Target: Acyltransferase family protein
Amino acid sequence: MVSNTRFASVDALRGLAVAAMLLVNNPGSWSHVYAPLQHAPWHGFTLADLVFPLFLFIVGVSISLSMGGRIAAGAPKAPMSRNALVRAARIVVLGLVLHALAWWLMDKPEFRLMGVLQRIGLCFALVALAAIWLTVRQQWLLFAALLLGYGALLASAGDLSKSGNLASQLDSLILGRWNYEWHAQTGMGHEPEGLLSTLGALASTLLGVRAGDVLRRAQPAVLALMGGVCLAAGWWLAGYQPMNKQLWTPAFVLWCAGWSLLLLTAGHLLLDRLQLPPLGRAFGVNAIAAYAGAWVMAVVMYGFKWHEPAFEALRHALPSLPAPAQSLTFAMAFVLLWGGVAVLLDKRGIYIKV
Model:
C-alpha cells in the first residue's frame, strides 16, 4: 500500500541536516574548529562530511513524496517537468545572489560560480526529470551508470590528488578563476561543488527517490536492508577508490547513502510510527530560507568586521573553556538563534518556498 501522508521523519531529517550545515559552516574561529566538525582534508570521512549528502538524499526522498503519487496516477509529465525546472532555477539563482553578496561584502578577489545551493538546484532539476520520465528499472540503471561511469572517469586520469584529479582539471578548464580555489600562476583551480563531481551528487539524490518510494510503501525493513547493503558496498569500494567528499567518489556516495538510509529508517520508526516529537522539523519546513538567511547573516558579520568582536566577547565570557570548545559554543549559539527564527516562522504558519 502506498501512503500519501506527510512524513515527520523527512521534515525532521531535512531540518537536522540544515542545522548541521549551519553548525559546521559557522565556527567562532576557523583556527580552532571543534575537531568532530571538521571535514576530512582530502581522502577520508568525518561526521561533518555526511551532512550535505544527507540533505541531497532527503531532496530525493522529497521528490518521490511530492511527485510519486501524481506520477503513478498518470498526471501530465510536461507541467510537472516545467514546475521542477522553474523551482530548480530559483534555487540556483538564489545561490548566485548569495555568492555575489559574499563577493561584494567580503571583498573576495574572485566570484565563485558554483556552490551548495547551485548543486542542490542542479540535482533537484535532473533527478526530478528522471523521476518523472524514467521507469523504476531505468532509474536503477541510471544510478548504476552514474556510479560506474563517474568512478571510471576518475580512474582514467590515474591521479586523485587535489590538483591532478580529472574533476579539478575539468573545473579549471571550464570555470577558470570562478572556482572556489584558483591559482593564477598555475592555471589550476579546485571546486568542491564542481561540474564533474555533480555526477556523484546526482547518484546520492537519485537513491533518495528510490528510498522515498519505499517509505511511501511503509517498508522500513527494506530501507534498513538497503542501508546495510550500501554501507557494505561503500566500505568495499573504498579499498579500490577512496572516499572523498570533495570529489564525491562512488565509495563516498554509497557510504553516506547507507547512513542516510539507516537514519531515515530510524526516523520513520520513531517519528512517524511512535510519533515522538520531530526535533528539527521547524528547520526542515523552511530549509532553504533558513540556510540563505544564515548565510546572509554570516556574510554581513564578516563583511562589516563584526564576527571577530562577537567571538572575542564570548571568549571573555567563557575564559575557562579551551579554544575549540569556545568555537563550538559560538557555532551552537548561531544555530540556536536561527532555530528560534525557524520555530517562530513555523508557529505563525509562515513557510518561505523557493
The chain has two domains: 1-38+280-354, 42-273. The first helix runs from residue 8 to 25. The beta strands are 181-183, 188-190. The longest strand covers residues 181-183.
